[in-house]
Amino acid sequence: MTSWLLLFIVVLGPQAQASKICSGFLPENQMSIPAIFTSGITESQFNNILRRIYNEYRIEFSAQGAEFVVENRWSDPTVNAFASKNGQFWIISMYGGMAREPNMTYDGFAAIACHEVGHHLGGAPLYGRDSDMAVEGQADYYATLKCLRRLFRGDDNGKILAGRQVDATVVRNCQAEHRGRQDQLLCIRAAMAGVSLAAVMADIGSGAVPKITTPDKRRVSRTDETHPRAQCRLDTYFQGALCRVPYSQGLSMTDYRVGTCADERTYTRGLRPRCWFAPPQ
After folding, report:
1. DSSP code for 274
2. Are 124 and 60 within 8 A, CB to CB?
3. What secondary structure does DSSP assign to 15-41, as a single string?
4. 260 within domain boundaries
5. Which of 246, 230, 227, 226 has the alpha carbon at shortest distance from 238?
6. CA 103 to CA 238: how far, in whole Å?
7. Quick check: 8 pLDDT over 90?
8. How far is CA 102 from the centre of its chain?
9. What one-character DSSP code corresponds to residue 163?
């Protein structure tokens, strides 16, 4: 464990001390995957992702008057991840049990870390009028709309994707929506991270694996603040990756349209799926 991660755990102690907390990347569950198991990603990969997230976002959190805290809980068997606040400390708590889920990939776990960052920085819609944390669907949207593309922008994404099986629908849509080759590759990689998480959610929920080609057709009448269904979440990751608004453009805590694909007259791809999101009337 790196010294900065260890320091944060010593300072903050148990995650339960946090004053505000999201309900978790997954709904509450009783799953437990101890560190003796070697499935999922390695401890080295786990630490690498957390280090990259911290280095990428610590200055942005500081600009908000907050101290960004990444809790490294590799030894904890909990199959989940959380975002919380404890005064000036804005926390994401990342658990080894989640990383060891058999279907977990490096990019999928990075997407989970991005989701937790999204609760803090992902903008509207928020949990109720008095909240300052993004709802679950918005945190998913932020993960591929901004965070993963930002995190992976310096990688050799062409080489990385060349060794993977990539969904043809993802490639076709990313190439249609993004002009530059690097933006296309970032879109593909971010969307495929969502595909890998679909397998994780199906395994944990004992359901069918969602597919890019079978989007959720439901339309909510009001924004769902809880965890959308697995298919709806995959749709959200895909649309976030497709949105051509630059990942460098900021978001708003009050206006869901800022920094996103929100106008249906302008965008045909990249919009928040209506299976969880309903524009304010």
Report:
1. T
2. no
3. GGG-SEE---SS-----B--TT---SS
4. no
5. 230
6. 19
7. no
8. 19
9. T
Residue 30 lies in a domain: yes
Backbone angles phi, psi at 161, to 5 degrees: -75, -25
Q: Is residue 23 a part of any domain in this protein?
A: yes
Structural domain count of the chain: 1
Q: What is the pLDDT of residues 233-277, one digit of tens each?
A: 999 999 999 999 999 999 999 999 999 999 988 999 999 999 999
CB distance 108 to 92 below 8 Å: no
- Please name which of 175, 176, 123, 162 lies closest in space to residue 145, comparing C-alpha atoms: 123
**Tokens matching residue 23:** 């309900």
List, in sequence order, the alpha helices (H) in the chain.
Answer: 3-12, 43-63, 96-99, 106-121, 136-142, 148-151, 157-162, 168-177, 181-205, 230-242
Phi, psi for 273 (deg, rounded to 5) = -65, 140
User: Going edge to edge, which strands form the sheet with 67-73?
Assistant: 20-21, 81-86, 89-95, 67-73
Between CA 159 and CA 218 the distance in angstroms is 37
Residue range of the domain that includes 110: 3-242
Q: Is residue 269 part of a domain?
A: no
